[in-house]
């Protein structure tokens, strides 16, 4: 029992100590996805869907939940954002070649069709990010159309 108590106290001390460490936040000001929106032109309702369900992990601006103030959750979330942005960042659309944009949209279609995005652990806590079938279809239709326009070179860079 004594050892258990010691270990518990040590763990508690660690938990308190790590509260003093905070990962850097992913925050942007202004129209950080302006180029992405201008080129891919999603309808106003779809813009809101993308913003509310993808931007937290795939743009330079995350809207953090209150529990991000608690370590180690903050580190876990920061990791997700970093990983998500590495794969796809709507705020860095300008840095992608036309071929890459087309490919990223292809992956968006795949992810939505297979119901892999938004991540499950995100939709557990973000009810409004659970996509309806209609929202899913509108993302896929928009991505398909935009891919075609990129492939036909119809989108001015
Ligand atoms: C909670 C964070 C989170 C949210 C929200 C989220 N994603 Fe992701 N996404 C990730 C992570 C992490 C990866 C990379 C690892 C993986 O594939 O699971 C990823 C990968 C992807 C990829 C693959 C890119 C590649 O290069 O392989 C696509 C496409 C994608 N997400 C699209 C979306 C779309 C579209 C939405 C909104 C409907 C969305 N994601 C919402 C975290 C997220």
- Overall geometry: elongated
Low-confidence stretches: none
Order of helices and strands: HHHHHHHH
Quantity of strands, as a count:
0
β-sheet strand percentage: under 5%
Can you lay out the helices and strands and say which pair or pack?
Layout: H1 2-18, H2 34-40, H3 44-53, H4 55-58, H5 73-87, H6 98-113, H7 120-125, H8 133-151
Helix pairs in contact: 6-8
The structure holds heme C (HEC).
Residues 53-54, 56-58, 80, 83-84, 87-88, 107-108, 111, 117-119, 122 line the site of heme C.
Structure description:
- The chain has 157 residues and is mainly alpha-helical.
- The chain is built from 8 helices and no strands.
- Helix 6 (98-113) runs antiparallel to helix 8 (133-151).
- It starts with a helix and ends in a 6-residue tail after the last helix.
- Bound molecules: heme C (HEC).
- Heme C (HEC) binds next to helix 4, helix 5 and helix 6.
- The site of heme C has 17 residues, from helix 4, helix 5 and helix 6.
- Residues 12-147 form the Haem-binding domain.
- It holds the Pfam family Haem_bd.
- Keywords: Signal.
Give the tags:
157 residues; mainly alpha; 8 helices; elongated; binds heme C
Brief sketch in words of this structure:
This protein is mainly α.
């Amino acid at each position: 029992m004594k050892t258990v108590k010691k270990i518990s106290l040590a763990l508690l001390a660690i938990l308190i100590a790590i509260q003093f460490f905070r990962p850097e936040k992913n925050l942007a000001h202004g129209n950080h996805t302006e180029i992405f929106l201008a080129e891919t032109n999603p309808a106003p309702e779809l813009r809101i869907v993308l913003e509310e369900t993808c931007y937290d992990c795939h743009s330079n601006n995350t809207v953090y939940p209150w529990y991000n103030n608690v370590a180690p959750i903050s580190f876990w979330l920061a990791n997700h954002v970093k990983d998500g942005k590495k794969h796809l960042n709507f705020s860095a659309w300008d840095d992608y070649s036309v071929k890459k944009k087309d490919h990223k949209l292809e992956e968006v279609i795949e992810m939505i069709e297979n119901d892999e995005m938004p991540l499950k652990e995100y939709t557990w806590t973000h009810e409004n990010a659970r996509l309806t079938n209609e929202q899913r279809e509108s993302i896929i239709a928009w991505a398909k159309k935009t891919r075609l326009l990129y492939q036909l070179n119809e989108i001015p860079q």
